[in-house]
Amino acid sequence: MKILSNILHLFFGITRSMTIGARCIIHDGAGSVMLVRHTYVSGWHLPGGGVDVGETCEAAVIREVAEESNIDLTGKPVLFGVYLNSVVSARDHVILYISSSWNYKQGLLLKQLEISESAMFNLTDLPIDIDPSTRQRLDEWSGITEVSLIW
């Protein structure tokens, strides 16, 4: 199944004109964040995924987070930024949200073939194989959080 998933991701990466992804920094307010490991690419990433046709970015991030990590966002996620994702294509953009209002939900992950693991990590003890863009976004967010705590 992993080979089929890789082929499909490659096919869609080549044939589409533009994509928008929605990701979310899910944190517990005590310095830990949720990360997921995909089956088709190495490293740990922020949960989230593609925005479907006719779907808002906010609805997409709520849906994708639930599918990838069994987390229900209970409050409205806050927009953090919009980023160009030039790793795949110059036409890809990622909308990043933040949420500290969430609950674990019961049941099986809907994306078991796509997600191999999900876990909470302390910002001071992130995994070695974290995706560089994920690390950069977390550094930006934690830097802003620290500054706002001083004021």
Structure in words:
- 30% of the residues lie in helices and 32% in strands.
- The chain has a single domain, classed as Alpha-Beta Complex (Nucleoside Triphosphate Pyrophosphohydrolase).
- With 151 residues, the chain is of the alpha+beta class.
- The strands form three sheets. A four-stranded mixed sheet has the order 4-1-7-6, covered by helices on one side. Strands 3-2-9 form a three-stranded antiparallel sheet, with no helix packed on it. A two-stranded antiparallel sheet has the order 5-8.
- The termini are far apart.
- The chain is globular and about 40 Å long.
- The longest helix has 19 residues, at 132-150.
- The chain has helices spanning 2-15, 57-69, 132-150, and strands spanning 19-26, 32-38, 44-45, 48-50, 71-73, 78-84, 92-99, 102-104, 115-122.
Which terms would index this structure?
Nucleoside Triphosphate Pyrophosphohydrolase, disordered C terminus, 3 helices, 4-stranded mixed sheet, 9 strands, 3-stranded antiparallel sheet
